[in-house]
Design brief:
single chain, Recoverin, domain 1, 2 domains, two-stranded antiparallel ribbon, binds calcium ion
């Protein structure tokens, strides 16, 4: 349950110095001005608040209506005000769609997202991405909704408050960063070569420079870690891809550990036995052999990994072994050894320079680190394409290929 504000804090906010008469009607624009600073949420929640108050009279709001709403909903700490404002009044949980009007307002008002105003399609994709990221982190069991307890545990509102204060949206790494959205969406778009907004098995095999084994891709497509489209399906949609990619690029978090564990635990008995692991490593080592790499025998890999993870039981590794605090840096290495060729080779070569930069850089987790590098890479590629296009135009206009040497001004 949320915490009531203490008696000493404001109990009933007064509006606009008493300029708002009890029955006087305000349309959304005036309403927004009048309530500014009278609730603890950022301005981009005003639309949500207005819609909730004016459900039966959408063209205006009276002061009396506002007062009723605020006495019922604002007399709490910020976490509870957030929860009550986002969810529907009749409901005790937040569902995905509840966030749509709030993120839509953010897109309309945030200076760092203004450039998207002419790109409705990207605005929609941004919204889907932010919501999927919130659910990825908060709805860890995949229930499809957020409870009050879940929101409080993760302090979800803090990211919204930051988005309201921070002019550079990319600094809000929790959920809202445009760069993070760009990376997720571009990588999806690249793989979805036939543009049907779905990714096939063959598409996913190309992910990360063909780094995943077909064995693990098969498991993902068997809906082992999580049903596609929430009900299960043959192909991977954009939201499914977000779950996959966040888990792939940051194997330290609990959701990712569970995601990959479910994939690897083929018989579903909750234990990653030597047999389970061996069947994946065989596929991986076969690929290594074909590509001319030295293959480390499975027994050695297993030994090395058991040293790192130190499982409690004798029969294999269970989820809780991976979730020990001292394991969060190494569990990814075991997963990579079993199904991600490129990352495993990188781990094996243990580049000390890479390890040191990782320890010393500004990022809190592997996802933030990856997204920053990948965004810059994508931006550079885009710049290169732009240059090539310009170059082609110049050559075309010159009508003669030799002119291209003289274009630099
Ligand atoms: Ca496709
Ligand atoms: Ca098993």
């Amino acid at each position: 349950m949320g915490l009531r504000r203490s008696n000493t804090s404001i109990m009933m906010p007064e509006i606009g110095g008493g300029e708002w008469g009890e029955e006087e009607r305000k349309g959304f624009k005036d309403f927004k001005k009048a309530i500014k600073g009278l609730h603890p949420l950022p301005d981009f929640f005003s639309q949500r608040i207005y819609s909730k108050i004016t459900k039966n009279s959408p063209s205006y709001c009276t002061k009396k209506q506002w007062n009723t709403w605020s006495s019922e909903n604002l007399d709490w700490d910020v976490g509870e005000v957030f929860f009550r404002t986002v969810k529907e009044d009749e409901s005790e949980v937040i569902v995905k769609d509840d966030f749509i009007p709030i993120i839509t307002s953010l897109l309309q008002t945030h200076p760092g997202l203004e450039f998207l105003s002419e790109h409705k399609e990207f605005q929609e994709k941004y919204t889907v991405t932010v919501i999927a990221r919130i659910f990825y982190e908060v709805d860890k069991e995949g229930l499809g909704h957020l409870t009050r307890r879940m929101c409080r545990k993760r302090r979800v509102w803090e990211a919204f408050l930051r988005a309201g204060e921070e002019e550079d949206i990319n600094k809000v790494m929790d959920f809202f960063s445009y760069e993070h959205f760009y990376v997720l969406y571009c990588r999806f778009w690249e793989l979805d070569s036939d543009r049907d907004y779905k990714i096939s098995r063959a598409d996913l095999l190309k992910y990360g420079d063909h780094s995943l084994s077909h064995a693990i891709v098969d498991r993902i497509f068997e809906n082992a870690p999580r049903p596609f489209g929430r009900r299960g399906g043959e192909e991977m949609g954009y939201e499914d891809f977000i779950y996959f990619m966040l888990s792939e690029e940051n194997k330290q978090n609990e959701v990712a550990v569970r995601y990959w564990f479910e994939c690897l635990d083929i018989d579903g008995d909750g234990v990653l036995s030597t047999m389970d692991m061996k069947s994946f490593y065989n596929v991986q080592s076969h690929r290594m052999q074909c590509l001319g790499h030295d293959v480390v025998p499975f027994e050695d890999v297993l030994c090395q990994m058991y040293d790192l993870i130190k499982p409690q039981g004798k029969d294999g590794v269970v989820v809780s072994d991976f979730l020990q605090p001292e394991c969060d840096k190494v569990s990814g290495a075991l997963f990579d050894a079993l199904f991600n060729l490129n990352k495993y080779l990188q781990f094996e070569s243990r580049d000390p320079f890479l390890e040191r930069t990782k320890r010393e850089d500004e990022f809190d987790n592997d996802w933030d680190r990856y997204a920053c590098v990948d965004y810059n890479r994508l931006a550079m590629e885009e710049e290169q394409r732009e240059d090539d296009r310009n170059q082609m135009e110049i050559e075309w206009e010159g009508g003669d290929g030799d002119n291209n040497m003289n274009m630099g001004e």
